[in-house]
Amino acid sequence: MGGLLDKANATKTETVDEVEVTVKVKTKPASADVKSSSKPSSSSSSAPKQNPELAMKLNIAGWVAIVVGGILALQGGGMGILVVMGVLLVGIGLIVQSERLAEGDMNVVKLGLSIFVAVIVAAGPYAALVLVPADSSMALTEIAINEDADEITFYVRGSFDSATATISLDGETVWSDTLTLSNDRAKFKAPLSAFFDGNSQDYRLASMNSYLIEVASNDDQTASSEITPSLMNREILNSGARISEVLKTETSGTTTTTSVDGLIVESIMGMFAPGEGPQDNGEHSMTNLGLTPVSSDYTMQLRIKKSGSTEYSSPIITVDGLDATWTSAVSGSKSGKTNGWLGLPGTATDSLNTEYIQKDSFYDGAGCYTFEIVITNDFYAGMTDSGSSATGIMVSSNSWELDFNADSNQRTMEVC
User: Cα separation of 183 and 218, whole Å?
Assistant: First the structure.
């Protein structure tokens, strides 16, 4: 009996020991799990999660803001340092945040270099505008002519409030205006009618008149420049004409006859040597190479006269710059260039579709015919008034003997 009790006690003891061992084995992993799970929790509370995609977007946005700041800085005083600095701070803030999201812990050296470059890009232009000496910031630029508005235009640029511009002719002021600058510039417009008083050059391109632009700012800066002489050659001083026959061939049975049906008339206008003139056979000594073209506003008309009586007048040709336009009785709207010989309107067209003046429109028997080129300049108000001492009307006369009934070898169209 005692032996059985001892055996039972021994068995109970072993069971308890096994339970204790089992409990110990099970509790250790649980303790390890708690410790391992606590580490990430403490780490995540000290640094933001990395997000490379968002970091890249913020970085791009930051540099875009920096570039915008640089563009605003180029506007100078018009935008102001506060606007530039505000945009700069936004850009730097975006760059800093992108650095944190990209690498977790910020790279101080890399971030410092980025901020330095950002400041140079955004604030550099503004600093340059502030530091440049005032006396080197004025510029007189883009002197040009507006043919549509008939005016000289030019820009004045600089870091000052207002500027007064004058145009002088051979030392005498003939025009002036004062403008306030906007975004460090002002555009001046000087009507040609207000100051033009003769061409700058003659036909040899030798100087005749000098038109000088002078500008003074409200802080006593000055600049000056001569208007390009070719822009100020506005007055047509010379013109000429040349003619050539248009023949008509008719056949009646076995008989073929050729006769003069009319004349092709061409004109040249601008500036050339006064000794140039008509030659035999309807020619003219002037060539395209000898012409100094004049870009201006004027009208031109051909008149054919015999013994002082006008036998024919062409449609009026209007010239704007170097572009001539007119309405033809044959072809409707026509155009051409005045930088060389220009075919004039006619009453019919030949086989090459060239207009010519038919004989019946002007011919009144053999004799001396004068082909007048009438130029009406229009470069200042009132110059073409009948009472004006300078009417602006220039007439050239080109005369030839015409006998359309003579044989071809006798139709020499000699100068008369």
Answer: 16
What does the longest C-alpha to C-alpha distance in the chain come to?
176
Compute the distance between CA of residue 271 and CA of residue 198 in angstroms, rounded to an integer.
Answer: 13
The pLDDT of residue 113: 73
CB 147 within 8 A of CB 191: no
Rg (CA), the chain: 46
The C-alpha atoms of residue 100 and residue 102 are separated, in whole angstroms, by 6
Residues with Cβ within 8 Å of residue 111, at least 6 apart in sequence: 95, 96, 99
- For 380, list phi and psi in degrees, rounded to 5: -155, 155
**Taking 60 as the threshold, does the pLDDT of residue 356 lie above it?**
yes
pLDDT (tens digit per residue) in 270-280 = 999 989 999 99
Residue 306 half-sphere exposure toward CB, CA atoms < 13 A: 14
d(CA 103, CA 331): 79
CA angle 80, 84, 89 (to 5 degrees): 145
Question: Is residue 160 within 8 Å of 135, Cβ to Cβ?
Answer: no
Local structure of 191: helix, strand or coil: strand
DSSP assignment of 330-366, as one string?
Answer: TTEEEEEESSS-EEPP-SEE-TTS-EEEEGGGT--SS
| Alpha carbon distance 343, 311 (integer Å) | 19
For residue 277, give the 3-state DSSP assignment.
coil
Q: Other CB atoms closer than 10 Å to residue 364's CB: what's the count?
A: 13
- Alpha-carbon distance of 383 to 379, in angstroms, equals 8
Distances from the Cα of 402 to the Cαs of 219, 239, 244, 289, in angstroms? 71, 21, 11, 29
Question: What are the pLDDT digits (tens) for 177-231?
Answer: 999 999 999 999 999 988 998 899 999 999 999 999 999 999 999 999 999 999 9
Residue 125 has a pLDDT of: 61
Count of helix runs (H) and strand runs (E) in the chain: 5, 21
CB 341 within 8 A of CB 283: no
pTM of the complete model: 0.64
Q: Contact at 8 Å (CB) between 212 and 226?
A: yes
